[in-house]
Amino acid sequence: MEESYELNSRGVEIFTKSWLLANSVIKALVFFCHGYGDTCTFFFEGIARRIASSGYGVFAMDYPGFGLSEGLHGYIPSFDGLVNDVIEQFSKVKENPHYKSLPSFLFGQSMGGAVALKMNLKQPEAWDGAILVAPMCKIADDVIPPWLVVQLLIGLAKLLPKEKLVPRKDLAEMAFKDKKKKEQTSYNVICYKDKPRLRTAVELLQTTQEVERRLEEISLPLLILHGEADKVTDPSISGALYEKAKSSDKKLLLYEDACHSLLEGESNEMIFRVLGDIISWLDERCSIKNSNS
Question: Domain Serine aminopeptidase S33 spans what residues (predicted)?
Answer without folding.
Answer: 26-265
